[in-house]
Specification:
By secondary structure, the protein is α+β, with helices and mostly antiparallel strands. Strands 5, 6, 7, 8, 9, 10 and 11 form a seven-stranded mixed β-sheet that branches. Strands 17, 18, 19, 20, 21 and 22 form a six-stranded antiparallel β-sheet that branches. Strands 13-12-16-15-14 form a five-stranded antiparallel β-sheet, with helices on both faces. A hairpin with a 5-residue loop joins β14 and β15. It is flat, with a radius of gyration of 50 Å. The N and C termini lie far apart (131 Å).
Length: 732
């Protein structure tokens, strides 16, 4: 008992010592510490006489005075992180806490938490953080500001400036859409005497999801001083000394409560740790006290265990005998043939099913020894398995043919293995065999049916394919390979979407998901667009059906389709011809009516022109009207020829002149993507033809050439003199 209490006392002392090491006040070396600072309103500001001031600096200066820590304030133009990593200063009054920084210098527990905000002009359309996803956002070059903006608005354009005033100037001058800063800095900016943008009003966009916690930075050698200053700020919060300092810099009670909550978190942690230490002491005492009771209980349980074990052994022996009897009865009544042999290969057990399967009676087998009923074609394989059984090997589900006593051939599935005693020594072999003759016959019938079905699909002049439930090809026939150019290796095992255009992928996924979830549809019709190996497309009209197994579960999808590519092409050509015919009819009707109007206009123009004397000022103007009417009449004749409503009037035609006059109309027909080039032979003989029909021929040729160049190109029209032989004229 004395040892017990000595152990408890030692544990209590150890826990108390560890608690003092963890939560005791930090020991600060009595020397002057170099405290760095820079211009970062409202936390760090250059006051009158170039003395540092600001929210963070006032807090640190007050805490240092209360704690008796001497500070030397040193202005640093570069970042706080650079100052601490170079050890240019010992301490820094305010620095954001990140895991990366803690690898290079010490940062105290946080004493300030700041949300971030964005300032925008009052007329800005942006109202939320998400509205500024792709906007231009100004911010200072502070690493923590860059980190937060890059994390929450990665696609925004960052416009960094060294000073906050330059950031606000960019916003006011509309060089940026918003200014990004912490909430404290944002409040300070809005409270400036003349406003950051003069008479222009700014609007606040809160970003509460973006936060930073700030502590006192220090090189590792001065970490105790940083922790002591932070603890003193916590003491000031508990005494209510923070309100005057925060009020001096224009902060509300809400920010004060947030700051006091952060400072109180460490006190709560220490209280919880103290409670945990007390609980640990009580737990150790309870554990030591329980050991004595456990020892007494174990002595009693060992005695009870001995009695229970003896009774359990007797019950197990009785249960084993009963189990052996049940197993013997089960083997006798099983439909499968069950046999057992000793190591001398004598039959020691056989159930009545032996006679049903082989025709041999059990008594004959016991008297005559081993009967080799294995079919001659399977004998070598099965006898090798038989010899291996006596070497400790086993096999499962091996199928073979046996010859019954009356000469019939049956199929059997055999499972054999060694018999071992309690020591693991082999004392015999045992096995069971069942009749699978009917199953083998059904399998052979199924294979024959599959061979006939596959032969039909292979030779039919239709596109046939089968897919698994994932959409992968498991079968394609030769016709499918012929029309697509793919090899069987390039399709089997590949997903169907690899051979379909992207616009049909979503439809295929919807069908597969429906089959997987509800088993529907069971049959459907599709018109897939199959991609060939040379990049062309083949249209199919396919009937699809879901294949099910004996349990009704869908196991595959079969598809049988007709190649309708040429049919669709002819159909599209027919529709295009109908469109052109309709267009020609419309153009002819308009041209006919317009020609009637031109007849009146041209007639009266001639009358007026002839009534005017030579030298009349109006005569040249009327002449221009006559010429314009003549050109309009020529254009009308071209439209009538195009619509085939004008009677053919063959006459000598200058092809060069026709091409030159129609170049503008030809260019409009071809479009901007096709360059029209003319090579006109000179001199060129005339041809006897109807001008309108010749122009119609050219229009048809140009339309066909345009359709053959969907991506644009160059079209050349060339004229030249040629000699046609009498033989050519006779053939044509």
């Amino acid at each position: 008992m004395r040892k017990l209490w000595w152990g408890v006392g030692a544990s209590v002392i150890l826990v108390a010592f560890l608690g003092w090491l963890q939560f005791g006040p930090p020991r600060v070396a009595p020397r002057v510490y170099k405290m760095g600072w820079t211009d970062s309103p409202p936390f760090q500001v250059r006051g009158s006489g170039s003395e540092p001031t600001g929210l963070a600096i006032d807090l640190i200066r007050t805490a240092a005075r209360r704690r008796g820590i001497r500070l030397q304030w040193i202005y640093w133009r570069d970042s706080s992180e650079a100052a601490l990593r170079r050890k240019a200063v010992d301490l820094w009054p305010l620095i954001a806490i990140t895991p990366e920084r803690l690898r290079f210098f010490h940062i105290s527990e946080p004493f300030l938490e700041a949300e971030y905000c964005l300032l925008v002009r009052a007329d800005s359309p942006h109202t939320t953080l998400q509205d500024l996803t792709a906007a231009t956002i100004g911010l200072t070059s502070s690493p923590i500001d860059l980190y937060h903006l890059g994390r929450h608005l990665p696609y925004a354009h960052q416009l960094t400036r060294p000073q906050r005033s330059q950031v606000m100037e960019d916003l006011c001058q509309q060089r940026s859409d918003a200014a990004f800063m912490d909430a404290f800095t944002g409040i300070s900016t809005l409270l400036e005497k003349h406003g950051p943008c003069g008479q222009q009003t700014l609007r606040w966009i809160a970003a509460p999801e973006i936060r930073s916690r700030f502590g006192i930075g220090a090189v590792f050698e001065s970490s105790a001083a940083a922790d002591a200053l932070r603890d003193e700020i916590g003491a000031m919060a508990s005494e209510g000394q923070l309100a005057p300092i925060l009020g001096q810099w224009g902060y509300t009670s809400q920010q004060l409560e947030s700051m006091e909550a952060i400072l109180a978190a460490r006190r709560h942690t220490q209280q919880l740790a103290a409670a945990a230490v007390l609980f640990a002491i009580l737990f150790v005492v309870a554990c030591w006290q329980s050991i004595r009771f456990l020892r007494e209980r174990n002595r009693t349980r060992r005695a009870e265990r001995f009695l229970r074990e003896r009774n359990r052994t007797r019950r197990a022996e009785r249960a084993l005998r009963e189990t052996e009897e049940k197993l013997r009865l089960m083997a006798i009544n099983m439909k499968e043939m069950v046999l057992a042999y000793d190591m001398n290969r004598r039959l020691i057990f056989a159930n009545p099913a032996v006679e049903t399967l082989t025709g041999y009676r059990v008594a004959e087998l016991e008297k005559g020894g081993l009967v080799n009923w294995i079919h001659p074609d399977d004998r070598a394989r099965m006898m090798a398995y038989w010899e291996g059984l006596f070497q400790g090997h086993a096999y499962d589900g091996e199928e073979y043919r046996l010859v019954t006593r009356d000469g019939r051939i049956k199929w059997a599935s055999a499972t054999w293995g060694p018999i071992r005693d309690a020591a693991g020594r082999q004392i015999g072999i045992q096995g069971s065999e069942r009749d699978i003759t009917e199953r083998k016959a059904a399998d052979e019938a199924l294979r024959e049916s599959e061979r006939r079905f596959r032969g039909l699909l292979e030779h039919v002049q239709l596109a046939a394919a089968m897919f698994d439930l994932k959409g992968n090809y498991v079968f394609v026939n030769d016709y499918t390979l012929a029309i697509t150019g793919w090899t069987r290796e390039e399709m089997i095992g590949h997903h169907v979407t690899e051979h379909l255009p992207p616009e049909q992928h979503e439809h295929i996924r919807a069908i597969n998901e429906g089959l997987a979830s509800s088993g529907e549809p069971s049959h459907w019709f599709t018109e897939p667009l199959l991609l060939t190996k040379d990049g062309k497309r083949r249209w199919l009209q396919a009937n699809n059906v879901a294949l099910r197994n004996a349990e009704g579960q869908i196991v595959a999808i079969a598809s049988l389709g007709v190649d309708v590519t040429e049919h669709r092409a002819l159909q599209e050509q027919y529709l295009q011809a109908q469109k052109l015919e309709s267009l020609g009819t419309l153009a002819g009707g308009v041209a006919h009516d317009f020609n009637n109007l031109l007849t009146v206009i041209n007639g009266y123009s001639d009358i007026v022109f002839r009534s005017l004397r030579e030298g009349d000022a109006a005569r040249p103007k009327i002449d221009q009207v006559r010429k314009a009417g003549a050109r309009a009449a020529a254009l009308t004749q071209q439209l009538l020829a195009f619509s085939r409503r004008q009677i053919a009037q063959p006459r000598p035609v200058d092809l060069n002149r026709m091409v030159e006059e129609s170049a503008g109309m030809f260019g409009a027909l071809l479009g901007e993507d096709i360059e029209l080039v003319t090579h006109l032979g000179r001199p060129l003989g005339q041809v006897m033809a109807d001008p309108g029909q010749i122009q119609q021929v050219l229009m048809n040729l140009l339309a066909n050439a345009r359709d053959a160049m969907p991506d644009g190109g160059r079209l050349t029209i060339e004229t030249t003199n040629g000699t046609i032989s009498s033989g050519y004229r006779a053939d044509h």
